[in-house]
Design goal:
heterodimer; A: alpha/beta; 8-stranded mixed β-sheet; 6-stranded mixed β-sheet; 29 helices; 13% strand; B: 424 residues; alpha+beta; 10-stranded mixed β-sheet; two-stranded antiparallel ribbon; 15 helices; 39% helix
């Protein structure tokens, strides 16, 4: 297999084109590195070329990075180190070529790809929107291991490098030029020509080492002396610990690699980098993050059976009914991603609020430079509002986000069927009412589906697509396409109370209520959960959901699952006392004008049991094991088919700590034996609701794990 | 050619609710809504045509801006037309020619004007000084050229005023109305009574939700703007008669009260061939049967309808009595009344139309039954389109057959459209 093509022209300019056969993107594997080594040796020996340009044969891709699949398989530090050292050695050889080298970049240039470009003397980028430059390794629990931490710091300084490497941030060509990663930024169509002109202008002299970067006073004060640097690094470390809660070792490792390598000679520096990198690669955190990444990518691919043979017109007009928080959020997401949206509500004040909120998000996108002013003007104009069903004949797809009441949803469905074309799909954004029940009186039940978004819509990447009993495959397919086009990760589930996420969340929230009812200090509960890695405590989550909604859902779950979902009596009492959560400013926390004002002192004590204590670990077990228990039922009932759907949904939909890989990966790590044993104990000492489910017991008997059937 | 549907923004007075909304936004809002109401999609259009007079600087070819903002695919072309006050009708006429000749099936034709946003200019002498300043190279040069500015150089030239003046006759629009008032001996009292009627009819129309069916609300920072705001409730003869003549202080009779208002707004219609509409089972609001444009004396531009209506009737062999309702744009009460008088005058008709007898009077109860531009306002580029939209709704609602809308056009022209509710 040959993927690197070298040619030398009459001006003695060598061009090396990277074009991985049979792949859409260029990725660096061990074989690619070997091939590169051979070419470098050749160039050194023959001395025919006087400048080397490295570029890509793929459209919009330079090099996407190292092959993640290979990294995922590395399970011991020695192999990891070997991989690091090999890449470092070959990139070092590239950097050591006696002729000037230029990377000509017109597309994705990430991770190992950027490290290779950094090993060149010069980089030319283009202003194309497709250019993505960055070292996103920390997002996968690892650090750049082919010289990236060392070469980038030497090229652009410490602060800019930390900014890129610690966050895994991705920037475009213009930005890369601005911060000094690239020597030039040129229009995409002129790249080949400009790279050649640049090569010719170099006149063959070798040029290496640090470019005469203009230093600011801050550079000198913070980066050019040991005291400044030590302040800089210790501040950065504090920041990381604050942001990651200490759960993610990679940013710290990257920081240390940069700190310890900065003033050393390049070989020593690379050794330091390799040592840190090989610690990270085999770590459980990295494995979980990579697994989640692949699960996410996989989820966005339409299953083959659902693909349609004929090409048909794309749906482009979507009606959203109900301009509350969810309806408004959905409208914004759709309009931003190219759909025309007809937002309907019977109350014009909701329409105004929804548009204002959407405008606020658009302004934010403009401020963050995620979208240009022109893109935003077009997006905003895709939204129109109406109080009635005028214009719904043009609507291809309706998303209903009205109050969570069966009769109202059915009434809306009836109205929609009367005012739209027979082909129009009706998607309900219900969070717990079974779709089949909503569809039960519909004329076209095959067109009714669930499309459940999570709040806030612009931030939560998950949507649940719920297939009712009669929902057609075509309806699922069209819904799937919309979800993916607006940048969401869909999980297709079968119909049932609470579907996937809320069914798993319910025992967790319920258990939190039981704990504080028993007298467990509420703030302590929140702290333990946060320390475990959840993005928010369960009580704050109940505030967000709203006490009434949580209570209503709880009752509904109890009807469906009886004792496994035994309801804590505390919530209805609190509702009676006027607590509703964030929506009325009084929940476990207090809120005023949309801002949180601290923990609600009235929520301190629910029991006269003073000093009621449970070990932290037991608190977590009480919260999570019922969730795992329920998940085994969900898999058994085939609500979703695969354990990875559960993990993906819980991470993307509720922020379950990604470094743990999801609740089922966590269960596998703890051991099914231990989970069952603990549930057994809790069943005996606390309540029947902890009784291990039959599918979980079977797993224990057969020695199965949730993920051990997964092929590698 | 049939009209599938249409929509317009509220018409709001100069420097009020919609003054901060750029013209292209108003046009986009009207066009999107008219597409939805017509049950067709943007990509089905063959062309987008918008009438506009003031050409806002930020949107040269405003039709194209409106089309793309409304989600019309890039490959579908768009152009802007101007026939001064009839620009919003000219777009319909252009669509007519394309559709009737089989060159197009589906066209969006609109009109748009935000008169509040017509820019203020520098005078020519000030402009020269600015240009000198921009080209100055040295500091001394800059200083010297800056010193050349006099206070009066900073007084703006009001673009709106410049636009309302006819360069051939040297008269502004109000002055042309004064010419007619004097020649046709139309008294101040008659003009004011006509104006008062316009307000009363418009008020009644609002009360009976006549305009609601054609208006799409516009969301601004103060909430939804849902209604035309020019209609002064409880307008009275007393109030009208107190106003001073605006254009001829000494002998004049034309006041701000008996003239149309300066207004912001947009209107749009979706037009298609009859076959296209039938084949697709689309709703039909009405039919554009025929149209006429006729030229006349620029200093008597207000008589435009008196030339255009006979021309139009003649094309179809119709008489005034065949027509169920009329809309004549109320640029000025004097001008509408002059048209009525002219058409009822045997002398005028024989001199100007070469017919032996008077064409006939337009019955009062058939004219502008929902009021006109005196009460509703006259956003120049949009009015013609609005008149067609309004009369089609009215024909349909009353189960009538034929209607005529007509406008006088600054620069000396008249426009008239024949409409029907029946698509056979």
């Amino acid at each position: 297999m040959s993927c690197l093509h070298l040619s030398i022209n009459n001006d003695r300019i060598a061009t090396l084109i990277f074009d991985l056969p049979g792949e859409k993107v260029n990725k660096i594997s061990m074989e690619v590195l070997d091939e590169l080594q051979i070419i470098i040796d050749e160039l050194k020996k023959e001395a025919r070329a006087k400048v080397l340009i490295i570029t890509s044969g793929k459209k919009d891709i330079f090099i996407a990075g190292a092959d993640l699949k290979l990294i995922e398989l590395v399970s011991d530090p020695e192999t990891a180190k070997k991989g690091c050292v090999k890449g470092q050695k070959i990139f070092q050889a590239l950097a050591g070529l006696p002729i000037p080298t230029i990377a000509a970049i017109d597309g994705v240039c990430l991770g190992g790809g950027l490290e290779m470009a950094l090993a060149c003397n010069h980089r030319i980028v283009t202003d194309s929107k497709k250019v993505q430059i960055g070292l996103p390794e920390v997002r996968f629990g690892i650090i750049p291991g082919w010289g990236g931490t060392q070469r980038l710091t030497r090229l652009v300084g410490i602060r800019k490098s930390l900014d890129l490497i610690l966050s895994g941030k991705i920037i475009d060509g213009k930005k890369a030029f601005k911060i000094g990663i690239a020597d030039r930024c040129v229009p995409s169509s002129l790249l080949a020509q400009e790279a050649m002109n640049f090569a010719l202008s170099l006149k063959g002299e070798s040029w290496g080492g640090e470019k005469g970067r203009r230093k600011t006073l801050t550079d000198i004060l913070l980066e050019d002396n040991p005291i400044g640097r030590s302040i800089l690094f210790s501040q950065a470390e504090k920041m990381i610990l604050k942001n990651t809660g200490g759960h993610y070792p990679a940013p710290i490792a990257a920081l240390r690699a940069i700190r310890d390598g900065y003033k050393r000679n390049i070989q020593e520096a690379l050794d330091i980098e390799a040592a840190h990198c090989s610690d990270c690669v085999p770590s459980k955190v990295s494995k979980n993050l990579i697994k989640l990444y692949f699960m996410g990518e996989n989820a966005k691919k339409m299953p083959d059976i659902m693909k349609s043979a004929q090409t048909e017109r794309k749906l482009d007009d979507i009606g959203v009914i109900g301009a509350g928080i969810m309806g408004g959020g959905i409208t914004h997401a759709l309009a931003r991603n190219g759909y025309r949206v007809r937002l309907k509500d019977i109350d014009e004040t909701y329409l105004i609020k929804a548009i204002r909120e959407s405008d606020r998000l658009f302004n934010y996108l403009k401020k963050e430079k995620k979208n240009t002013q022109e893109e935003i003007a077009l997006s905003k104009n895709r939204i129109s509002t109406t109080l009635g069903y005028e214009g719904f004949k043009s609507i291809d797809f309706v998303i209903e986000a009205v109050v969570e009441k069966l009769d109202i949803k059915q009434a809306v469905l009836k109205e929609v069927e009367e005012t739209t074309l027979p082909s129009t799909i009706f998607a309900s954004n219900t969070s717990s009412i079974p779709i089949t029940r909503i569809a039960s009186n519909a004329r076209r039940q095959e067109n009714v589906i669930g499309l459940h978004f999570f709040n806030p819509v612009h931030r939560m990447p998950l949507v649940e697509i719920i297939k009712g009993e009669k929902t057609s495959d075509e309806t699922v397919r069209k819904t799937f396409e919309i979800a993916v086009r607006i940048g969401k990760t869909p999980v297709v589930c079968k119909d049932g109370p609470g579907f996937l996420v809320n069914r798993l969340l319910m025992p967790y929230l319920n258990e939190a209520m039981f704990l504080i009812e028993e007298g467990f200090e509420p703030l302590m509960l929140e702290r333990i959960v946060l320390k475990f890695g959840m993005p928010m405590g369960p009580l704050r989550l109940i505030d967000e959901v709203g006490f009434d909604v949580a209570c209503h859902a709880g009752e509904f779950m109890y009807e469906s699952f009886s004792e496994r979902m035994e309801i804590c009596k505390l919530l209805p009492i609190l509702i009676k006392d006027g607590f509703m959560g964030r929506k009325n400013g009084m929940g476990f926390y207090l809120y005023k004008d949309g801002k949180e004002k601290g923990f609600n002192p009235e929520m301190k004590n629910f029991s006269n049991r003073k000093g009621y204590e449970i070990a932290n670990e037991d608190v977590i077990n009480r919260l999570l094991y019922p969730m795992i228990n329920e998940a085994s039922m969900i898999l058994d009932e085939k609500i979703v088919e695969r354990a990875e759907d559960v993990d993906l949904a819980m991470v993307y939909g509720t922020g379950f700590p990604p470094f743990l890989g999801g609740p089922l990966s966590y269960a596998d790590d703890v051991g099914i034996d231990k989970v069952v044993e603990c549930l057994d104990n809790m069943q005996k000492s606390i309540s029947e609701r902890f009784r291990p489910t039959e599918p979980l017991l079977k797993m224990k008997r057969d020695g199965y794990k949730f993920f051990n059937k997964r092929d590698k | 050619m049939v009209v599938l549907g249409g929509a317009r923004t509220p018409f709001t007075k100069f420097a009020t609710s919609l003054s901060s909304v750029p013209a292209y936004e108003l046009g986009t809002i009207a066009m999107k809504e008219s597409l939805y109401r017509s049950e067709v999609k943007p990509y089905e259009l063959d062309e987008v045509i918008f009438g506009n007079v003031a050409s806002p600087p930020e949107s040269a070819n405003i039709a194209r801006v409106i089309a793309l903002m409304s989600g019309v695919p890039e490959k579908i072309p768009a152009f802007t037309v101007s026939r001064n006050c009839a620009s919003g009708m000219e777009s319909i006429a252009d669509a007519f020619i394309r559709i009737v000749s089989g060159r197009a099936n589906l066209i969006a034709a609109g009109g748009v004007e935000n008169m509040s946003r017509i820019p203020l200019f520098f005078s020519d002498s000030a402009k020269g000084k600015w240009q000198n300043l921009f080209m100055a190279k040295t500091f001394a040069q800059k200083f010297k050229r800056l010193a050349a500015f006099k206070f009066r150089d900073f007084l703006p030239v009001v673009g709106l005023e410049v636009g309302l003046k006819d360069i051939i006759s040297g008269l502004n629009m109000g002055e042309t109305a004064e010419v007619l008032a004097k020649e046709f001996h139309i008294s101040r009292r008659r003009q004011d009574e006509f104006a008062l009627e316009s307000y009363r009819k418009a008020e009644r129309a609002v009360f009976s939700n006549r305009f609601k069916r054609e208006i799409v609300p516009v969301l601004t920072k103060d909430g939804f703007v849902k209604e035309d705001n020019g209609i002064r409730k409880n307008q009275s003869m007393e109030a009208l008669s107190k106003l001073k003549p605006y254009f001829d202080r000494k002998f004049g009779t034309v006041t701000a009260g008996n003239s149309s208002q300066i207004t912001d707004g947009a209107s749009c219609l979706i037009l298609s061939s009859n076959e296209f509409a039938k084949k697709r089972g689309l709703p039909i609001l009405g039919v554009i049967e025929e149209f006429s444009f006729v030229g006349c004396d620029p200093s008597r531009m207000g008589l435009g309808p008196a030339y255009a209506i006979p021309n139009l009737l003649n094309k179809r062999g119709l008489k005034i009595s065949d027509i169920d309702i009329f809309e004549i744009n109320e640029a000025f009460a004097a001008q509408v009344l002059a048209c009525i008088d002219a058409l009822s005058s045997k002398k005028w008709c024989s001199e100007n139309l070469s017919i032996d007898d008077a064409l006939g009077a337009i019955p009062e109860d058939k004219l502008n039954i929902n009021g006109g531009a005196i009460a509703l306002g006259h956003p120049v580029g949009a009015s013609g389109n609005r008149l067609v939209l309004t009369i089609l709704h009215e024909l349909k609602a009353r189960g009538l057959n034929l209607g005529i809308t007509s406008l006088c056009i600054g620069g000396g022209q008249g426009a008239a459209f024949l409409l029907s509710s029946d698509s056979k």
